[in-house]
């Protein structure tokens, strides 16, 4: 089993249970929903200082809200993203980490990103427009595909530009993923 040294921040008990089934001995902090209290944020700060923190929230709006709250309160945390399709329940329920397969969780935790707020912007809004990732029909689906290929999660247009910059995604990686979104066509030459 892969050992995760950092403490993984998840939303609830079922997420912790799924991670323990997959990784065995793993430590988590549960936010218990999107209204994270000061005590939980203090625990996350302390964990970040001692061992590092990986934020792995559900691939939905509340999960993104939790991720943003933690990033603002605890700069320098590391992020892992589960593709939306991997969090779909087999029967009833909402999208979540607890529904992911062990393989999907291992893949998510192999692609870690730490925000660098002052990173230089190497991909522009003009690049996103030219790639049809913002401002047009099909942009949402294209962003979702790109986010999965780059392992940075689903984003809206503004979030995409921020993540590409703060996670220091290179132009080469961006255009390689874009080529896959385009089905192998080199539309950016």
Automatic annotation (TrEMBL):
One of its GO terms (cellular component) is cytoplasm. One of its GO terms (biological process) is rRNA processing. It comes from the Bacteria. Keywords: Cytoplasm, Endonuclease, Hydrolase, Magnesium, Metal-binding, Nuclease, Ribosome biogenesis, RNA-binding, rRNA processing, rRNA-binding. Its EC number is 3.1.26.8. InterPro entries: RNase_M5, RNase_M5_C, TOPRIM_dom, TOPRIM_RNase_M5-like. It is found in: Cytoplasm. It catalyses: Endonucleolytic cleavage of RNA, removing 21 and 42 nucleotides, respectively, from the 5'- and 3'-termini of a 5S-rRNA precursor. One of its GO terms (molecular function) is metal ion binding. Pfam families: DUF4093 (PF13331), Toprim (PF01751). It is an enzyme of class 3 (hydrolase). Gene3D superfamilies: 3.40.1360.10. The keyword Cytoplasm applies. PROSITE patterns: TOPRIM. Residues 5-89 form the Toprim domain. Required for correct processing of both the 5' and 3' ends of 5S rRNA precursor. Cleaves both sides of a double-stranded region yielding mature 5S rRNA in one step. PANTHER family: RIBONUCLEASE M5. Belongs to the ribonuclease M5 family. HAMAP family: RNase_M5 (MF_01469). This is Ribonuclease M5. It comes from Lacticaseibacillus zeae DSM 20178 = KCTC 3804.
